[in-house]
């Protein structure tokens, strides 16, 4: 088997990176994306509880009788982090520098077996005076498989500019 030699570093760096996020110059106010949809499983809930220590009875006891929600509710933080994972893997991978501010409203329950996805809309872009960066604000609307809005949040991030 012959082995192909890699191009020199300058040529290699000029090849687009798979999964690279967007630079602030390549987006505009009003631009929208929708994430993939993902079904939240019992394994997701258990893993999240184990990592975070959120051992509240409504999350750890499938037969908990005093809860206000029927079914297996999941923490809002789990829903949020799943959506942020989609955003990281697509919009801000390699270009997101910092989460600066977050305002979140949980509007409805998410249960094990629900499928969630989000609509992301850029609402503001403010270039900084330093290092080819911009502060980008987005409105994220999370909804379930029945098109019910279960969460809304505004995220303000620092994004890198084109090299």
Automatic annotation (TrEMBL):
Identification of the protein by name: MaoC family dehydratase
Organism of derivation: Diaphorobacter ruginosibacter
Family matches, as Gene3D superfamilies: Hotdog Thioesterase (3.10.129.10)
């Amino acid at each position: 088997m012959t082995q192909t030699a890699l191009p020199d570093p300058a040529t290699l760096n000029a090849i687009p990176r798979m999964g690279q996020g967007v630079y602030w110059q390549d987006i505009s106010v009003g631009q929208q994306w929708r994430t993939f949809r993902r079904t939240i499983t019992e394994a997701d809930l258990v893993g999240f509880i184990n990592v975070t220590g959120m051992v509240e009875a409504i999350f750890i006891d499938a037969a908990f009788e005093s809860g206000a929600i029927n079914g297996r509710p999941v923490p809002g933080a789990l829903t949020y982090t799943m959506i942020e994972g989609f955003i990281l893997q697509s919009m801000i991978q390699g270009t997101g520098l910092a989460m600066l501010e977050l305002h979140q409203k949980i509007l409805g329950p998410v249960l094990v077996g629900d499928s969630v996805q989000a609509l992301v809309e850029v609402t503001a872009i403010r270039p900084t005076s330093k290092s080819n960066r911009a502060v980008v604000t987005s409105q994220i609307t999370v909804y379930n498989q029945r098109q019910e809005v279960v969460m809304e949040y505004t995220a303000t991030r620092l994004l890198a500019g084109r090299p």
